[in-house]
Structures are given as structure tokens and as C-alpha cells.
Amino acid sequence: MSDVVVEPVLRVTDTALSKILELKAAEDDPDAVGLRVGVTGVHNGEFTYELSFEPLAEAADDDLVYPQGVLEVIVPAASADDLDGATLDLPATAGQGGLVIRNPNRPDPMAGVWGLGHPPVVDPHIPLGRGRVLVGWVAFAVFVLTFAPVPFSFH
């Protein structure tokens, strides 16, 4: 089973909770599912999210599972830091449908520039094979051999 969390990562407001419970009641086995909320990426400098009902028995071992009223919330471990302190609510504009996540955390807009946007490796304990190490050394050698401290100029 997954980790049980006392302090919620994502808070659900009472108004959002009642709407979610309405939707949950339409599920085949509403007592066996929880609301899974995860960060799926970044678009235009904001996080993108996925919300779905998932059987509690299928929660991963490292997922955070905690109650919000009578609703069990499931947060994937990879999304916990990005969702910490966020609130799931209804939109402030009357008549607007859906749910809103008010998140104080923001993705780094320069992550791609700084090189921080690399996806996690599948298994960090498996060393690189000889072929990949060789490609790395060849790329480094090409850089060293072609480096020009003075830019080319054409007259």
C-alpha cells in the first residue's frame, strides 16, 4: 500500500469537496476510489495537472494517500513537492465549470535554459554502457579540438 500522510499536501475546499463527492458517487464502486491529483508537466509557465478517480488498492507504494473529509486524496510522490500548499477549489467566477488548483509553487521558467528540465532517469543505479561512455568522450574530444577562442571573421 502507499504512505499515509497526516499533513495534506493538497487542501480541498468544502465547496470543491461537495462537487467531487457528487462525481465520485457516479463511479462503479465509489467507496473503493480516491481522487488522484498529479502534476503532468508545464505549459506557458504554469503546471498542468491530471485529476482522476483511481482505485485505492492501485495506489503505488510511494504515493501519498490522505483523507480530506470523506474523500481519500492520492498524490504521486513525484508531484508532492510541486503541489505542497496548493488548494483545490471551484472557480471564483459564477457559472464557470470545472475545478481550479490554486498553487503557490511555480515551475522555473528558465528550467529548459538552465538544463533543469531533464526527465528523471529510469534507474539511476545502472551505470552507462561502454557505448554511451565512448560517445560522451568523442563528443568532448570534438568540442576540445574545434574550440576557437577567437571568433572567425571573414573580410
Give the CATH architecture: Sandwich
Count of individual helical segments: 4
- Poorly predicted segments: none
Order of helices and strands: EEHEEEEHEEHH
Q: Which overall shape is indicated by the principal axes computed on the Cα atoms?
A: elongated
Please describe the biggest sheet, giving its number of strands, its sense, and whether it closes into a barrel. Answer: 5 strands, mixed
Tell me the domain tally.
1
Q: Which CATH class applies here?
A: Mainly Beta
Question: Would you kindly provide a written description of the structure presented here, covering whatever features stand out?
Answer:
The chain has helices at 14-25, 80-83, 111-114, 130-146; strands spanning 3-4, 10-12, 33-43, 46-55, 64-68, 71-75, 86-89, 100-102. The protein is built from 4 helices and 8 strands, in the order ββαββββαββαα. The strands form 2 sheets. The protein has a 5-stranded mixed beta sheet with strand order 1-5-6-3-4. A 3-stranded mixed beta sheet has the order 2-7-8. The radius of gyration is 23 Å and the shape is elongated. It has a single domain, classed as HesB-like domain (Hypothetical Protein Aq_1857, Chain: A, Sandwich), CATH 2.60.300.12. Strand 3 (33-43) and strand 4 (46-55) form a beta hairpin. The model has no long low-confidence stretch (mean pLDDT 86). It starts with a strand and ends in a 9-residue tail after the last helix. Helices cover 24% and strands 28% of the residues. With 155 residues, it is α/β, with parallel strands linked by helices.
